Amino acid sequence: RQAHTCAEREGGMVEQLSELVKALEAVSALYRRMLEIMDRERRALLRARRTEIETCAAEKRDVLDRLQAAERRRTEAVNRLARQIGRTDAGVTLRFLARTAPEPHGSALHRCRSELLILIARIKQENRRSLALCRNAAERLRAAYGALKGLAADGSVYQRGGRLQGARLKGKLVCNDI
Predict the structure, then answer these.
(1) Quick one: CA torsion of 28, 31, 35, 38, rounded to 10 degrees?
(2) pLDDT interval class at 90 (50, 70, 90)
(3) In what helix (H) or strand (E) does residue 48 lie, and over which residues does it extend?
(4) Distances in whole angstroms, Cα of residue 146 to Cα of each of 53, 92, 164
(5) How far apart are CA 96 and CA 115, in angstroms?
(6) What is the pTM of this model?
(7) Lowest CB count within 10 Å: 59, 73, 94, 121, which one?
(8) Could you say which DSSP state residue 102 is in?
(9) Helix count (H) and strand count (E) of the chain?
């Protein structure tokens, strides 16, 4: 009976390790998809294409929802593994599992861990790039607004075609279209 229970436990552990590898591969695939979207978003930011930026934002929200579900699946698999081996879930890291899991799961977990570390670093880098682009755009908008305020303060009116004209009305932008 004890040998049967041990074999069942090992079979259950192999099943849980397989589930964890699948969950990690799903997370990696979603991170790769996020990087593709972030690349498109950066190009749209550089070209100031609002509709493309909005499309990318919607796609990112969808990927984030899917990442949340995949992360929940990963957490549940780790928790089940932790219970099976008698450890707390905090003590069960990918590094620990990669070192202690039987093959081929150990190698698969090591590969997943390495890939996730690279993908997460790339996403952080892409976030920093996007933040810098957005800050730069905001600074340019503030500068343009300041220039317009300066023009309005001296009584000039900016007309269609780029002409400046002195006017009695202060602070007005004149244009044929509204």
Answers:
(1) 170
(2) confident
(3) none
(4) 26, 55, 16
(5) 16
(6) 0.72
(7) 121
(8) P
(9) 4, 2
Residue pointed to by tokens 């670093």: 121
Angle between helices 2-47 and 105-153 (to 10 degrees): 20
Contact at 8 Å (CB) between 44 and 56?
yes
Question: Which is it for strands 164-166 and 156-158: parallel, antiparallel or unpaired?
Answer: antiparallel
Residue whose entry in the numeric block shows the structure tokens 């099976």: 84
Between 63 and 7, where is the model more confident? 63
- Token pair for 49: 């294409």
Q: How far is residue 161's CA from residue 2's CA, in Å, rounded to a whole number?
A: 89
Amino acid at site 92: V
Compute the C-alpha angle 85/105/75, nearest 5°: 55
Amino acid occupying residue 127? N
1: confidence class by pLDDT, cuts 50, 70, 90:
very low
- DSSP secondary structure letters along 106-136: HHHHHHHHHHHHHHHHHHHHHHHHHHHHHHH
pLDDT band at residue 8 under the 50/70/90 scheme: very low
